[in-house]
Design brief:
This protein is an alpha+beta fold. It has helices at 3-16, 21-28, 32-44, 74-84, 91-103, 106-116, 136-146, 214-229, 243-250, 274-282, 294-311; strands spanning 49-52, 58-61, 148-155, 161-174, 177-184, 187-192, 196-205, 232-239, 254-259, 264-271, 288-292. A hairpin with a 5-residue loop joins strand 3 (148-155) and strand 4.
């Protein structure tokens, strides 16, 4: 949950008095479901944001358009900063928090500052490197807001470098990887920002379809990518207690079909190719049994043969594995 988005929602309600989830989604270029979750999070945290059902209803700050941040109670101010403080990771969001603190009555500031620093969010998993925001992201954001074309030097998945003139439409941060959605001569394209070697603003006005919304466009991109990632499905048998581990690995491409009487579960998993599935399952050994398709079973057998060939070499006189020669006849 982004701190700047929550702050923007509060300021929008302050300016308009009342907004619907659809109106907020349109202003912030997020889905209606995301906007509704943000509003519910603000309300659930004790901030005076209330829904008004029925025709002409919506969400509003208690007191309407005249309400400002100085109208929050001490408890409400702490709730606000406890919610958005940990999400403020950028310099701009932290600066906005400092300004909001100064907008509060003096007696509330110490509690608000303590709430903002009471929790830290570390999105990096154990063993992973800290992923930092690409330097080009700030330049691209300015180009999106200013509606200006950008000339990109981009390295594709094939490692070939190309130069493109694009109309930047929006940026998406998905799992700490940034993507640029842009218009090109070939239509809408998605670029990984960390593969952009150079981004040069041109000053030329950029075009964007009138009906374009970033949330809808990204939803379509995700759907297409996930479809490609699940072209091959396999049915496997695994001990029921290990299903959560398998699901954590395959994510949305893991579905439990049934539970068997022997303590195992019948599960469906997917990946782009049979080899991808086999590689992911090979480390489980005999803990997983692939029922179908035959192509995945064949790939697993081939991987097993390769491993056996690599490690089942001649033993020395002590009965311990000897060192396999890496001469030309064994080189791969």
């Amino acid at each position: 949950m982004r701190a700047d988005r929550l702050i923007a929602a509060l300021l929008l309600m302050q300016a308009r008095g009342r907004v619907t989830a659809a109106e907020l989604a349109g202003e912030l270029e997020v889905s209606v479901a995301t906007a509704r979750r943000d509003l519910e999070a603000l309300s659930g945290a004790g901030i005076p944001v209330y829904p008004q059902p029925g025709r002409g209803g919506g969400w509003s700050l208690l007191g309407g358009a005249r309400t400002d941040l100085s109208g929050l109670s001490a408890t409400e101010a702490q709730a606000l900063f406890l919610l958005i403080g940990p999400a403020a990771v950028s310099g701009e969001a932290k600066a906005a928090l400092r300004k909001l603190v100064r907008a509060l009555p003096q007696s509330f500031r110490a509690g608000a500052e303590a709430a903002a620093s009471a929790t830290v969010i570390d999105p990096t998993r154990w063993g992973e490197r800290d992923r930092r925001r690409p330097e080009a992201a700030a330049l691209l954001e300015a180009a999106v807001i200013g509606r200006r074309k950008v000339r990109l030097t981009y390295v594709g998945s094939n490692r070939e470098s190309t130069e493109r003139l694009v109309d930047p439409w929006g940026l998406v941060d998905k799992d700490e990887i940034w993507y640029l959605l842009a218009g090109t001569e070939q239509g809408q394209r998605t670029f990984r920002v960390d593969r952009i070697v150079e981004a040069e603003p041109t000053g030329q006005p950029a075009a964007r379809p009138d009906d374009f919304t970033l949330a809808s466009a990204w939803e379509q991109v995700v759907g297409e990518v996930e479809q490609r990632r699940s072209r091959t499905w396999a049915t496997v048998l695994i001990a029921t207690r290990f299903v959560p581990v398998l699901r954590d690995h395959f994510g949305r491409h893991c579905h439990t079909e049934s539970h068997l009487g022997d303590g195992r579960a019948r599960v469906r998993v997917a990946a782009p190719t049979p080899l991808d599935i086999a590689r992911n399952l090979a480390g489980w050994g005999t803990m997983i049994e692939v029922i179908e398709p035959r192509t995945v079973r064949t790939e697993l057998a081939r991987i097993g043969t390769e491993l056996a060939d690599l490690y089942s070499y001649d033993r020395d006189q002590t009965g311990q594995p000897g060192h396999r020669s890496l001469g030309p006849e064994n080189a791969r």
